[in-house]
């Protein structure tokens, strides 16, 4: 059993993994559980199908080899699951609900990923939708063909192993499928999946003793790690952990020490009182931030608290900015937390976008941290304490925002001036840069209609964001 991969997919959606699950008829609860596992795996770990998409098919009527090809989006047609008419691949992106939801993943490519068997029967249009025949798994089917496509081979292989282990635990017999590529991959041109790719992790026992603060023997450590379901061996003064097929989170020996702690149980470690004496107090930054929050609350604003991580869609795309200064997470678990925010305003607009039914005016603010790239800094980035507010109302305008900024600076005891501002987030001529002496410390103005439209906000909005650290220091 094999999958043949078209060479033209290398720059589109290059990787695929597959296996067969046999030997047990699927009932209604098991089918619901399988679909839920598929959606969770692809939606969260797979970044809403961008890096992983999964399909389940009726294996009995598939003729091998399965062909994973790059298809013409206009000439290639089939009947997708949930519809009773044939559509072209491009038509599916426009008319099918799943095409509308996930079409942005592939729509800009000259050819689209396409799965068929050796007889030309369509399995699916990954990562969008299965076919109405081979892809319509029903209660009573006992042999399943599972495939996963994606853009990162390690992520894909791990997801494949997770699903194979899940179905094996449910009582199925797992049969491998060989994937034959016409181009090089990190693991060669012929990969039999599920494929074990994880590397063993070696831990120096002395390092574990030092970090844990307690003496622990190799036998105790081995038993603790074993309780967590991890194979481990002793090599002189080292422990060598072999990660299970469904885990790829052992990046460092410290991760093995964590397994020891969980395997032994936290209660097995004696509590130790700190030997150092320190005096706790609020930092000057926190005191100044609290003062600013009290002022905003006194002016009738409601305080919000947000995550510091967000999606590129919210922080960059919807704000119509370049994103040149944003800090990206190298291995995000989900695209909702792939970027460290460089501004609080996107968070405030996100709240406003879901508050159309609340009584106007809406007045919200947050005081928190932002981070951005800064090549002049030793670490290449800076973290700042900012405060930002948003007001939404039918008649709100620049003068209202200016009055609120004036009130905040008055009670903070600072003098400021305004300078022209060119910022795609704001309307040109109805926005300004806030200056403290010759130094910019913030921005304010009316949010641009294109930004409001991207957030589906229909009411006029003004906003301001101020660098509290710069204001506190007077520069």
Write structural notes for this entry:
The structure is a single chain. 36% of the residues are buried. It contains 13 helices and 25 strands. A hairpin with a 2-residue loop joins strand 14 (232-235) and strand 15. Helix 6 crosses helix 7 (253-264). The strands form 5 sheets. Strands 1, 2, 3, 4, 7, 8, 9, 10, 11 and 12 form a 10-stranded mixed β-sheet that branches. The longest helix has 18 residues, at 28-45. It folds into 3 domains: 2-193, 3-Layer(bba) Sandwich (Phenylalanyl-tRNA Synthetase, Chain B, domain 3); 201-268, Phenylalanyl-tRNA Synthetase, Chain B, domain 1 (2-Layer Sandwich); 284-473, 2-Layer Sandwich (BirA Bifunctional Protein, domain 2), CATH 3.30.930.10. It starts with a strand and ends with a helix. The model has no long low-confidence stretch (mean pLDDT 93). With 475 residues, the chain is α+β, with helices and mostly antiparallel strands.
The chain-level mean pLDDT equals 93
Q: How many alpha or pi helices?
A: 13
The structure class reads: alpha+beta
Strand content: 25-35%
Main sheet record: 10 strands, mixed
CATH top level label of the largest domain: Alpha Beta
Oligomer: single chain
Q: What global shape is seen?
A: globular
Q: Which segments are poorly predicted (pLDDT under 50) over 5 or more consecutive residues?
A: none
Strand segment count? 25
Q: How much helix, percentage-wise, in residues?
A: 25-40%
Radius of gyration: 28 Å
When the domains are counted, the total is 3
Within CATH, the superfamily of the largest domain carries the name: Phenylalanyl-trna Synthetase, Chain B, domain 3
């Amino acid at each position: 059993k094999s999958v043949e991969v078209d060479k033209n997919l290398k720059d589109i959606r290059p990787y695929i993994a597959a296996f067969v699950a046999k030997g047990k008829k699927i009932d209604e609860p098991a089918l619901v559980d399988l679909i839920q596992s598929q959606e969770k795996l692809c939606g969260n770990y797979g970044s809403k199908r961008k890096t992983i998409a999964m399909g389940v098919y009726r294996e009995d009527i598939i003729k091998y080899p399965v062909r994973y090809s790059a298809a013409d989006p206009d000439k290639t047609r089939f009947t997708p699951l949930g519809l009773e008419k044939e559509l072209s691949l491009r038509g599916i992106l426009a008319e099918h609900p799943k095409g509308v939801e996930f079409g942005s993943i592939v729509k800009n490519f000259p050819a689209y990923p396409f799965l068929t068997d050796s007889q030309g029967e369509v399995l699916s249009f990954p990562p969008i939708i299965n076919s109405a025949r081979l892809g319509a798994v029903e209660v009573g089917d006992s042999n399943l063909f599972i495939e996963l496509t994606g853009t990162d081979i390690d992520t894909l292989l791990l997801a494949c192993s997770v699903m194979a282990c899940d179905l094996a635990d449910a009582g199925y017999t797992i049969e491998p499928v060989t994937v034959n590529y016409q181009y090089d991959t990190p693991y060669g041109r012929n990969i039999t999946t599920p494929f074990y790719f994880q590397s063993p992790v070696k831990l120096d026992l002395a390092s574990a003793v030092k970090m844990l603060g307690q003496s622990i023997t190799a036998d105790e450590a081995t038993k603790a790690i074993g309780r967590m379901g991890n194979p481990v061996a002793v090599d002189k003064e080292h422990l060598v952990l072999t990660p299970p097929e469904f885990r790829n989170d052992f990046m460092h020996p410290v991760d093995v020490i964590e397994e020891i702690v969980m395997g032994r149980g936290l209660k097995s470690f004696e509590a130790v009182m700190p030997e150092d004496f320190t005096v706790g107090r609020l930092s000057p930054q926190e005191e100044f931030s609290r003062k600013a929050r009290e002022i905003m609350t006194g002016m009738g604003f409601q305080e919000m608290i947000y995550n510091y991580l967000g999606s590129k869609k919210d922080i960059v795309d919807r704000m119509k900015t370049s994103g040149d200064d944003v800090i990206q997470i190298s291995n995000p678990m989900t695209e909702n937390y792939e970027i460290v925010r460089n501004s609080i305003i996107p968070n405030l607009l996100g709240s406003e976008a879901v508050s159309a039914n609340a009584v106007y005016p809406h007045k919200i603010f947050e005081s928190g941290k932002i981070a951005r790239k800064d090549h002049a800094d030793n670490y290449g980035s800076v973290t700042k304490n900012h405060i930002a507010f948003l007001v939404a109302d039918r008649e709100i305008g620049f003068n209202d925002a200016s009055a609120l900024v004036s009130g905040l600076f008055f009670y903070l005891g600072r003098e400021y001036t305004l300078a022209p501002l060119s910022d795609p987030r704001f309307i040109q001529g109805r926005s300004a840069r806030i200056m403290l002496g010759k130094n910019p410390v913030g921005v304010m103005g009316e949010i641009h209609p294109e930004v409001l439209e991207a957030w589906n906000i229909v009411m006029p909005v003004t906003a301001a964001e101020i660098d509290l650290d710069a204001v506190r220091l007077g520069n």
